[in-house]
Amino acid sequence: MSLPGPPAENCFDTYRSLVLPAQCDHIGHMNVRWYAHHFDEAGFQIWTVADVRQSEMRADGVQVVVARTTTDFVREMIAGTSILVRAGFTKVGSKSVTHLAKMYNADTGELCATQETVEVFFDPKSRKATPMPEKYKSQLTGLIVDPTAI
After folding, report:
1. Which of 85, 89, 113 is nearest to 9 (CA)?
2. In the chain, what are the domain boundaries?
3. DSSP label of 5
4. Domain 12-144 is of which CATH architecture?
């Protein structure tokens, strides 16, 4: 089984890597802390590939911060496994967005883990959540995908 070609519209390949031996635990599979690491790297990239620039948000006086992540572990990954993370935005609220990332074995196409992340728009001066500027809300709403398409 291999991945079915390029991602669907508004789904993005956000990360590729390899499971290294040092990332594996005493059982021989990638330890949960490394799933978090790979998903976190992918989470930063979803904004860039969706054409929402961190530098532009900073210039507009907002940033995004992670409020919640939920990870489901589906299939173990061992040293030498090629990783592909594919992601998309699934919900846009007034102050937050939700995106879903799916981690695949890039060689076999098998789904190995999923992570749903809620990120909140944040005012770095007040250190509090803030309403999402309309330009981002409009742009991100146009990118919403069905989670099954990722």
Report:
1. 89
2. 12-144
3. S
4. Roll (3.10)
